[in-house]
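> forwarded from #structure-qc
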């Protein structure tokens, strides 16, 4: 079982809270995904994932998804094999995850807006009013 202090979850939550409101629109999930990617990439450029113990990771879009989504992969290094870490999908409270099945450690749903319903084992609620991210892990 995971916990909310998993470095990957913290990295994603930090990337969300660093987003610039000027580049997002409440009615456009893609704007949140693009700004999230930008902030994630800035952290990646500074080596923050490596410093958090995640190793060298990449993030790329998942084109088969109907909603904005990314695949996060850890690259092979120091005798370890490359592996799929997580899928990350952006949703509103009224949507259900639509990702194709990809074998990875975590399936993360990022809910943009306010709700208490967790559609995925790992859900990060992003409140656009308070501009905060809350990580929820369910069994």
């Amino acid at each position: 079982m995971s916990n909310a202090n998993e470095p990957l979850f913290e990295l994603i939550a930090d990337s969300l809270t660093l987003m610039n409101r000027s580049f997002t629109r409440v009615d456009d999930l893609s704007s949140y995904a693009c700004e999230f990617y930008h902030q994630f990439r800035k952290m990646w450029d500074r080596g923050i994932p490596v410093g958090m113990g995640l190793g060298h990771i990449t993030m790329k879009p998942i084109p088969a998804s109907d909603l904005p989504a990314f695949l996060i992969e850890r690259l092979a290094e120091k005798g370890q094999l490359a592996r799929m870490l997580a899928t990350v999908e952006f949703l509103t409270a009224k949507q259900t995850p639509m990702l194709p099945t990809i074998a990875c450690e975590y399936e993360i749903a990022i809910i943009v807006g306010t709700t208490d319903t967790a559609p995925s084992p790992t859900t990060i609620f992003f409140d656009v009013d308070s501009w905060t991210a809350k990580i929820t892990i369910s069994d």
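QC bot note: The helical segments are 7-17, 29-45, 48-51. The longest strand covers residues 83-91.
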